[in-house]
Design brief:
This protein is α+β, with helices and mostly antiparallel strands. The protein has three domains: 116 residues, DNA Polymerase III, subunit A, domain 2 (DNA Polymerase III, Chain A, domain 2); 90 residues, DNA Polymerase III, Chain A, domain 2, CATH 3.10.150.10; 124 residues, Proliferating Cell Nuclear Antigen (Box). Helix 5 runs antiparallel to helix 6. The chain is elongated and about 80 Å long.
């Protein structure tokens, strides 16, 4: 194997491939990047049992002198290519054992891994794709992934459920304490499906398409889903099990409706939560803090918290609009509300309540397809 390529081209593809490298693995071979050079193309592949990513490089700067294949130590190879200043990189495999990296007057030698030990990665057949704009997919991930569970007690809740019915794509995430749902109406008809995608895979996909503004192609099989964009094949496993039915909880006709300027509410909640006590679960502190919202008789809203060890905090906000029959006092996680508010792009949002014991819903008239639900916390 012997070829030369522009450093920037190689680095761009390595940055994509790096998202499929495992941080920890019982299989050391998976810490490597599979590299295969054909007579016209360079293929790079990474795999971590959940994700498999492959890029095909056919750049005009690619000058192939000898074909070949190997597995190179991923982290060290990427770090070298990031640090060198050369415009061109020349890679040469010697006796299937050593990869020589030449960059101007610098030379590095890496011991390669045995290609035969690398597991076979089968990518989904590229037929019958669902086409989705990258900007839409980014919005879906941004509006849902934060609400997935981080606990493996219920593995199905660690992913986002994607279901298609009647040309409407519904994406739902829940950790049992909150729900995030967004819907997208598709222009083209496609067969109905219901799959749950691991949140970690969606996080890495989001980073991979951060600067991509075209369309992605989605290809489905029973246990995996492949996203195709640019010169990249990005394949993730799907989670097993039935996703819980959350539709009955997302009743948008709630009697108490309080509208706010989103940024004003967000800033007040973040300030008050600085002093809020941390809720605890089995003596292990978890990462959200508790605040209270009270709708007063003068139609102002008070955001407050009481911390017996540190102090108290209280702020008043004047709603932009109000539909209510009675005062309200409810406690909830400040972090949950902050993350839900940040999922909206519009500046006017509404908090919709039944009473202090029932879940409340966050909506925006400018984003009718996005719904956030938060369960209250019991206050003594």
């Amino acid at each position: 194997m012997n070829f030369t390529i522009d450093r920037e081209v190689l680095l761009e593809n390595l940055n994509t491939i790096s998202r499929g490298l495992p941080s920890k693995t019982p299989m050391p071979i998976l810490t490597g990047i599979k590299m295969e050079v054909t007579s016209s193309d360079l293929f790079l592949t990474s795999y971590n049992l959940d994700l498999s990513i492959q890029t095909m490089i056919s750049d005009k700067s690619l000058d192939i002198k000898e074909i070949g294949r190997t597995v190179i130590p991923g982290k060290f190879f990427i770090d070298i290519i990031r640090k060198v200043n050369s415009m061109k990189i020349t890679l040469t495999l010697i006796e299937e054992r050593i990869l020589i990296i030449k960059a101007d007057r610098a030379e590095y030698k890496l011991h390669v891994m045995d290609y035969i030990d690398y597991p076979a990665v089968d990518f989904v057949a590229l037929s019958n794709p669902l086409i989705l704009e990258a900007s839409i997919l980014r919005d879906i991930v941004r509006q849902t992934v934060f609400a997935t569970s981080t606990s493996e007690k219920k593995p199905i809740l660690t992913g986002v459920n994607f279901s298609l019915a009647k040309n409407t794509l519904t994406c739902i995430a829940t950790d049992s304490y909150r729900i995030s749902q967004t819907k997208v109406d598709l222009n083209n008809s496609y067969s109905d499906f219901n799959v749950t995608i691991p949140s970690k895979s969606l996080d890495e996909l989001y980073k991979s398409i951060d600067n991509f503004d075209d369309c992605l192609e989605l290809y489905f099989e029973k246990n995996c889903l492949l996203f195709k964009f640019k010169n990249v094949l990005f394949q993730t496993r799907l989670l097993d099990g039935n996703y819980p039915d959350t539709s009955k909880l997302l009743n948008k006709s709630l009697p108490i409706i309080i509208k706010f300027n989103k940024d004003e509410l967000l800033d007040a909640v973040e300030r008050v939560s600085l002093l809020s006590p941390r809720d605890k679960e089995k003596d292990k502190e978890i990462t959200y803090s508790i605040i209270k919202l009270m709708l007063k008789t003068d139609n102002t809203v008070e955001i407050s918290t009481t911390n017996t060890q540190i102090g108290d905090a209280k702020e008043e906000i004047i709603p932009t609009d109000l539909i209510s029959a009675e005062p309200l006092k409810i406690g909830f996680s400040a972090r949950y509300l902050v993350e839900a508010l940040r999922s909206f792009n519009g500046q006017v949002i509404s908090l919709n309540f039944t009473d202090q014991t029932k879940p409340f819903i966050i909506l925006s008239e400018t984003e009718p397809n996005l719904t956030q639900l938060i369960l209250p916390i019991r206050m003594d």
